[in-house]
Amino acid sequence: MASSSSFLRLILLFSSTFFIKAATTAPPSLQHRFTSIFSFGDSLADTGNLILTDNTSRLGRPPYGETYFYRPTGRASDGRLVVDFIAEALGIPLLSPYLGHKSKDFNKGVNFAVAGATALDTLIGYGAATLFVPGNLPIGCSASYLSFFSSNNKGNYDPSGFSKGGLRACCGGGGPYNYNTSAACGIQGFTVCEDPSSYISWDGMHLTEAAYKWIANFLLQHSSLIPDHISIL
Ligand SMILES: *[C@@H]1O[C@H](CO)[C@@H](O)[C@H](O)[C@H]1NC(C)=O
Ligand SMILES: *[C@@H]1O[C@H](CO)[C@@H](O)[C@H](O)[C@H]1NC(C)=O
């Protein structure tokens, strides 16, 4: 075990990588395995960095955030993201965006999502131990891709035939998948579904809190996938 630190740091890169700084002895329970999370990535993991640099972003407008925070926080969903559910499960506070961080105290971690690539290099330089890459979401099934590459041949679509919100976006401006570039969620001319938790897709590109919760639970239940020795997968 290479780490000299007595702390364990879970580092998430969405889409989607874990960085773990392992301690000399890791107790089996996940709850006590990590004391901080450092998150990198894109809009799947951003908890507010983008809107701090671009106050015109739709992520800073309703209905983003309506399910959990009751206000837009810059998260690209109606509520919490995978990184939020993982933090909750580990007993760590929800990560503040790096750009909004008032102090230099990153004891519980911080979210660099948006600025991922260079920050990642820095971390490797500091000796981050383990990188875990579970992969990207199946974005080919997102309402936006299905709309851009639509087909009249029903056989080209999922034969299991999700018809009640499996592929349609909860928040959008019409069309077969409720995804319309002229009426995007948060901008104008869009409608929001009654019950986002019955949808997978929130805005045609990003997922609902309910879907992110499902993913987070899967990752937590399969935490044995997270290696605890130095490696890059
Ligand atoms: C966004 O920021 C610009 C530049 O600081 C400012 O002029 C503008 O009023 C802001 N817009 C909103 C909606 O806050
Ligand atoms: C997409 O949005 C535009 C602008 O609101 C609207 O005119 C158009 O009818 C919408 N398309 C569909 C398929 O609903």
From TrEMBL:
Keyword Signal tagged: yes
A GO molecular function held by the record: hydrolase activity, acting on ester bonds
Any Pfam family matching the protein: Lipase_GDSL
Gene3D superfamilies, A to Z: SGNH hydrolase
Keyword Glycoprotein part of the UniProt annotation: yes
Classification via InterPro entries: GDSL (IPR001087), SGNH_hydro_sf (IPR036514)
Highest taxon, organism lineage: Eukaryota
Keyword line: Glycoprotein, Signal
Cleaved signal peptide residues: 1-22
UniProt family annotation: Belongs to the 'GDSL' lipolytic enzyme family.
Name of the protein this chain belongs to: GDSL esterase/lipase
